[in-house]
Amino acid sequence: MRLYGYFRSTSSYRVRIALALKGISCEQWPIHLVRGGGEQFSPAYLALNPTGRVPTLVLDDGTVLIQSPAILEYLDEAFPRPPLLPASLEGRAQVRAVAAIIGCDIHPLNNVSPLNVLRRELGHTEEDVSAWIARWIHAGFRAVEQWIGAEGYCFGPEPGLADIYLIPQVFSARRFNVPLDAYPRILRVDALAAEHPAFRTAHPAHQADAE
């Protein structure tokens, strides 16, 4: 398998965590999202992934998978141990809710594309952009803080899909200097993940393209 990603892309980070949790060996192919106007817009990469985004996972047989939610579902179905979702229908719905808050409500509004529109097309200052980022992280994290459990990872003693979404978003919050003191449950999960080998392996600082 080959994973095309960027070291601080939170969606790439999610997939790296899942691969590490499941012990799946995968080549890492960096795609720099800034250098040269963005390597994701090169003809070669667009031929692979027409959205011009990361991550892209290429399977051993050449099948191309795009979009982190779809890739994570594939990995959990193709490599079911350890599972990323709990056994019960209700439990799976609760976990997916956290993934959706982060993947649908926070991440798209803080992705590089809308931020560049704010900067380049609408003329907003970096202070404005930082306030925008913080607004949506806080809105999502307030909900996540109430939804996840009071001990362990988000939903129990072992990490799963909710944690795979949450930890990269915490990394992003810190990158943009968003204060997190109001979220003790989230910080508890982050502290646990910091000691877990799979999360350490997947951390942006430990990638070959880290800057």
Automatic annotation (TrEMBL):
* Top enzyme class: isomerase
Q: Which InterPro entries match?
A: Glutathione-S-Trfase_C-like, Glutathione-S-Trfase_C_sf, Glutathione_S-Trfase, Glutathione_S-Trfase_N, GST_Zeta, GST_Zeta_C, GST_Zeta_N, Thioredoxin-like_sf
Look up the signal peptide feature and give its range.
none
Q: Which GO terms describe its molecular function?
A: glutathione transferase activity; maleylacetoacetate isomerase activity
Q: Where is the GST C-terminal domain?
A: 88-211
Task: Enumerate the UniProt keywords alphabetically.
Answer: Isomerase
Q: Which GO terms describe its biological process?
A: glutathione metabolic process; L-phenylalanine catabolic process
> Where in this chain does the record put each GST N-terminal domain?
1-83
Gene3D superfamilies cross-referenced by the UniProt entry: 1.20.1050.10, Glutaredoxin
The UniProt entry, under SUPFAM superfamilies, shows: GST C-terminal domain-like, Thioredoxin-like
> A single Pfam family, by name?
GST_N_2
Gene Ontology CC entries for this record: cytoplasm
Q: Tell me which EC number(s) this protein carries.
A: 5.2.1.2
The record's comment on protein family reads: Belongs to the GST superfamily. Zeta family.
> What is the name of this protein?
Maleylacetoacetate isomerase
* Record organism: Xanthobacter dioxanivorans
